[in-house]
Design brief:
Shape: globular
Oligomer: single chain
Number of domains: 1
Distance between the termini: 30 Å
Number of strands: 0
Structural class: mainly alpha
Number of helices: 5
């Protein structure tokens, strides 16, 4: 069972190493691999996703589906939870994406 301290250590590890080149990471854990892919996919909004940097099959499938998804519209709407309708729009986009 994962303790709160263990979870905090995992989060700290992922945050510490997610921007480091893969070849310099001491231990490419599954969580770090997924987090690095999520960070790479977030670059979609600025038109800078390089598929050669994606590490997982799931990330490659998501990259192929992103252009047709409503998630891009939500991303362009902003990040603030106080913005009118952003939460509802995100829930609807995720539901449509699945």
């Amino acid at each position: 069972m994962l303790t709160a301290l263990g979870a905090a250590e995992q989060v700290a590890y992922v945050c510490r190493w997610h921007v480091t080149p893969d070849c310099s990471v001491p231990d490419m854990t599954p969580k770090l691999r997924v987090f690095k892919d999520a960070d790479a996919l977030d670059r979609w909004c600025i038109g800078d996703v390089d598929p050669s940097f994606l590490r997982t099959g799931s990330a490659h499938r998501l990259r192929q589906r992103l252009p047709k998804s409503k998630l891009i519209i939500v991303e362009e709407a902003g990040h603030s939870e106080t913005e009118r309708g952003i939460t509802r729009a995100l829930v609807e986009a995720v539901a449509a994406f699945e």
